[in-house]
């Protein structure tokens, strides 16, 4: 009767051997080091991105105001690097189109932004930037913040005639917010977003794909102390949350090395399982040949 094939040891039985446990601990330590190095690289990735954004913000803050026409033309796409740039523009406010942007906070208090259309007359290009368009463009201007949807009339007053203003550029928002904006009896119409795509349907003429957060104007508007809208801080540069890709891929490499160490230990255990079976099969075969002096060579002759 032929001998039964040697039993295969289980993965658990092989893995619990002292030698395998020692190897596992070494590999786990190596994997932990790789994992920690990967986390360090991720931290570096964000740190470098934040430093780059801070440097960009600092450079933009000290830069002199630039005519808006040198940076952005009406209806042109808004480059992200323009966020926070201070621009100069001249035009006339159109208070009949004024809106309040709901759900905006200042210093932890909920309130509204005062959004006023400015019909641009001088963007620094002598009108060349809108020469091919239907007329003078309109620029959304956030003149400040109020705490009520029916603010003091002084907050809604605009300087008469032509106004030369400075302000921070900000990109147009989307219209993704849900919900119906309620009517605002006793105050200007409300909106949820400063979205050029929606404002173009309300204000006539070409429109910019960004808006300006007012910092100064000549003539001056009513100050907050006199009932005017409260000034707003400079828009935050987006991009500080981005990841530096070089450090990010370094982090991935370290994590792959850590996984490879664990996978290598699993492979060693499986090889040990297969090797034990081969050794027992080999020992059994050698024992059979030693007990048979004639052997099992060709035509019953002894094996050489």
UniProtKB/TrEMBL annotation:
Q: Which PROSITE patterns has this protein been placed in?
A: SURF1 (PS50895)
Q: Which stretches are tagged as biased composition: Basic and acidic residues?
A: 276-292
Record bears the keyword Repeat = no
Q: Where in the cell is it found?
A: Cell membrane; Membrane
Q: Which CDD domains match?
A: SURF1
Q: Which domain of life is it from?
A: Bacteria
Report keywords, A-Z. Answer: Cell membrane, Membrane, Transmembrane, Transmembrane helix
Report how it sits in the membrane: Multi-pass membrane protein
Q: Does the keyword Membrane apply?
A: yes
User: TM spans, by residue?
Assistant: 21-40, 248-268
Region feature (Disordered): 276-304
> Can you tell me which family this protein belongs to?
Belongs to the SURF1 family.
- The protein depicted here goes by the name SURF1-like protein
What is the organism of origin for this protein? Answer: Isoptericola halotolerans
């Amino acid at each position: 009767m032929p001998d039964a094939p040697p039993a295969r040891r289980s993965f658990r039985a092989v893995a619990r051997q002292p030698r395998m446990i020692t190897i596992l601990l070494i590999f786990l330590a190596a994997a932990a080091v790789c994992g920690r190095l990967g986390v360090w690289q991720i931290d570096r990735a964000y740190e470098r991105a934040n430093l780059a954004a801070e440097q960009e913000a600092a450079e933009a803050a000290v830069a002199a105001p630039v005519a808006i026409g040198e940076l952005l033309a009406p209806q042109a796409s808004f480059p992200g690097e323009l966020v926070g740039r201070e621009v100069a523009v001249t035009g006339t406010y159109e208070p009949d189109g004024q809106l309040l942007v709901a759900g905006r906070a200042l210093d932890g208090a909920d309130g509204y932004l005062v959004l006023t259309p400015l019909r641009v007359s001088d963007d620094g290009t002598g009108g060349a930037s809108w020469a091919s368009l239907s007329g003078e463009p309109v620029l959304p201007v956030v003149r400040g913040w109020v705490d009520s949807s029916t603010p003091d009339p002084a907050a809604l007053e605009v300087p008469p005639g032509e106004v030369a203003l400075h302000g921070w550029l900000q990109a147009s928002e989307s219209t993704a917010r849900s919900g119906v904006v309620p009517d605002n009896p006793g105050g200007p119409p409300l909106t949820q977003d400063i979205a050029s795509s929606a404002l173009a349907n309300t204000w006539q003429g070409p429109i910019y794909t960004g808006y300006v957060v007012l910092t100064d104007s000549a003539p001056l508007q009513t100050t907050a102390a006199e009932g005017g809208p409260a000034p707003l801080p400079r828009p935050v540069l987006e991009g500080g949350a981005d990841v530096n890709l070089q450090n990010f891929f370094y982090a991935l490499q370290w994590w792959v090395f850590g996984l490879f160490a664990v996978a290598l230990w699993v492979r060693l255990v499986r090889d040990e399982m297969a090797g034990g079976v081969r050794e027992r099969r080999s020992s059994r075969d050698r024992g059979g040949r030693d007990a048979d002096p004639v052997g099992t060579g060709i035509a019953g002759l002894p094996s050489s």
